Amino acid sequence: MVETKGRKANPEARMALLDHLKELRNRLFKAAIGVILGTVVGFIVYQPLLEALIKPIKDLNEKEGRAATLNFDGVASSFDLMVQVSVFLGVILASPVWIYQLWAFIVPGLHKKERRLALSFVAAAVPLFIGGVLLAWLVLPNAVRVLTDFTPVGGSNFISAEIYLAFVLRLLLAFGIAFLVPVVLVGLNLAGIVKGKQLIKSWRITIFLVCLFAAMAAPGADAMSMFYLAAPMLLLFFAAIGVCVLNDRRRERRAIKRAAETEATADIATPATDLENL
Q1: How many helices (H) and strands (E) does the chain have?
Q2: What is the spatial distance between Cα 181 and Cα 250, in angstroms, rounded to a whole number?
Q3: Do 231 and 214 form a contact (C-beta atoms < 8 A)?
Q4: What is the pLDDT of residue 2?
Q5: Is the distance from CB of 197 to CB of 245 less than 8 angstroms?
Q6: How far apart are CA 248 and CA 245, in angstroms?
Q7: Nearest-CA neighbor of 182 among 201, 199, 197, 169?
Q8: What gap in Å lies between CA 171 and CA 88, rounded to an integer?
Q9: Cβ neighbours of residue 106 under 8 Å, at least 6 residues apart?
Q10: What confidence score (pLDDT) does residue 79 get?
Q11: What value, to the nearest 5°, has the Cα angle with vertex 38 and ends 49 and 86?
């Protein structure tokens, strides 16, 4: 939503639906360019990155004495995996670009003070996304170890490379997006779409969904593993809800003040010079 030259005449930056769609297309195009450039870097560093991704499988052999190996079961499997891993790294490297484009599409529709607050959350969104990815990276070895513990005694783990890397990439991306959701909630609140009271009323389902996600995304040997993952996510969610409630109160006070000013000036006659200008 690009600000037009007539910003003073259009302080709320209202746009027609077609203009919104054009602006969305431009934002998506810029985000795609950032991901493509990041993907190029991903192709360059693919080999060391792949070594790091498959390290949990190697650790099963070296540290626990299991028979575990990755199986490339197709002629083009290696190339397909190279593309998937490179695109995933491109998404991470381009996160400042596409997160900014997402917020830039929302921000111009906000008031000046709300816009400054929203931009501050843009700065928080990137490290939160990357922090979620890093947290998933720390959980990955334990998740692989626990899941392969179900292999019967005497059995071997010939794991499909395509299935394994798809699991790893989804895990990393899911955690990154999960840490980004609280920032999106604040943005929706600033845009007037979501109210803080609505989020407070749904706190039970929020806790349930976060714990369910933590249990599925990082299965540990005990309940503490789930707690270590769910705790920071819940903290971020409730911090976002607190910001939404404070913003709603500030918005209500501003609306009351405007109503009082309007009522105070309603009985004042309009000067003749102003009528002539109209």
Answers
A1: 11, 2
A2: 23
A3: no
A4: 44
A5: yes
A6: 5
A7: 199
A8: 11
A9: 1, 118, 187, 190, 191
A10: 85
A11: 40
Which residues of the chain are under the pLDDT cut of 50?
A: 1-13
d(CA 231, CA 253): 33
Domain boundaries, the chain: 17-264
Two structure tokens written together for 166: 């798809």
- Token pair 């109160």 in the structure block, residue: 249
Q: Output the six-digit token pair for 163.
A: 């299935």
CA distance 194 to 240: 12
Give pLDDT, residue 1: 43
Q: What are phi and psi of 100, to 5 degrees?
A: -65, -40
Report CA-CA distances (Å) from 2 to 9, 30, 116, 189.
Answer: 15, 14, 16, 21
- Return the biggest CA–CA distance within the chain: 97
The pair of structure tokens assigned to 186 is 């604040």
Query: Using CA atoms, how far apart are residues 57 and 72, in angstroms rounded to an integer?
Result: 14
Torsion sign (Cα): 225, 228, 230, 233: negative
- Length of the chain as a residue count: 278
The structure's pTM equals: 0.66
Structure tokens at 106: 């929302």
User: What's the confidence (pLDDT) of residue 7?
Assistant: 43
Let me know the angle formed at the C-alpha of 75 by 71 and 76, rounded to the nearest 5 degrees: 95
Q: What angle do CA 214, 220, 222 make, to 5 degrees?
A: 105
Q: Which residues on neighbouring strands pair with residue 157, listed in sequence order?
A: 68
Nearest partner of 216 among 231, 204, 226, judged by Cα = 226
Task: Please enumerate in sequence order all residues whose Cβ is within 8 A of that of 53, keeping only pairs 6 or more positions apart, or say none.
Answer: 85, 165, 168
Q: Where are the beta strands (DSSP E) in the chain?
A: 68-71, 157-160
